[in-house]
Each structure stands twice: as C-alpha cells, then as structure tokens.
Amino acid sequence: MPMNQLVRTGLTAAFLAVSVFGAASTPPARALALAEHEPYEIVVRLAPGLDALGLHQTYGTTTLAQLPGHPDVLLVQTPAGILAEQLVQTMAADARLLYAELN
C-alpha cells in the first residue's frame, strides 16, 4: 500500500474514532438543559378564562408565584414527593393549559 494511501486511511480512521467516541462521551446540550431545573417547580400558562383552582385540585399543586402582568402564567410547586419531571408531561397534555414546562 503506498504511503499516501496509508496515511489517508489512518487519518480517516482516527477522525471517525474521535467523531464516534467523542460524541458518545459528551452529553447532548438538551440533556444538560433538562438537568438544570428546579426539581419541584413547573411553569404553566392557563387557557383563557380558567383559574388555578381546578388545576390545583387535579394535581395537588400550589401557586408559588404569578408572572407580573400575566395572571395566566404561574409558577407552581408539585405535591410533596413528586418531582416536576414526573408531572410536567401529564400537565402539558391537559387542555386547560397552554403549556407546562420545567422551571
């Protein structure tokens, strides 16, 4: 095998190894972003005309804060022992909410 072809093959193999193994050892940015949240807090936006009472009765949540100027955007605390990650997907599917996201 000529020297140029041997060097080219070696460099290609090295590049592929770094690409594959380097990417596998680096956590994706989305995974890092999901890890950076308050474990017992969810931000929700109520659908027009609804209040938080029904939401809290359904999920056992409590309002921690309201976004100033936006009475429909709430920071809610999950019930004792329930992580936000466990509850947020269920809440996001609730038609009474425009969105539910980890805080």
Topology of this structure?
Elements: H1 3-25, H2 29-35, E1 41-46, H3 52-59, E2 62-67, E3 70-77, H4 84-92, E4 97-102
Antiparallel strand pairs: 1-3, 1-4, 2-3
Looking at this protein, list some descriptive labels.
2 domains, 4 helices, Alpha-Beta Plaits, alpha+beta, single chain
Describe this structure in words.
The chain is of the alpha+beta class. The chain has two domains: 3-31; 37-102, Peptidase S8 propeptide/proteinase inhibitor I9 (Alpha-Beta Plaits, 2-Layer Sandwich). The chain has helices at 3-25, 29-35, 52-59, 84-92, and strands spanning 41-46, 62-67, 70-77, 97-102.
Task: Provide a quick synopsis of the model.
The chain has 103 residues and is α+β, with helices and mostly antiparallel strands.
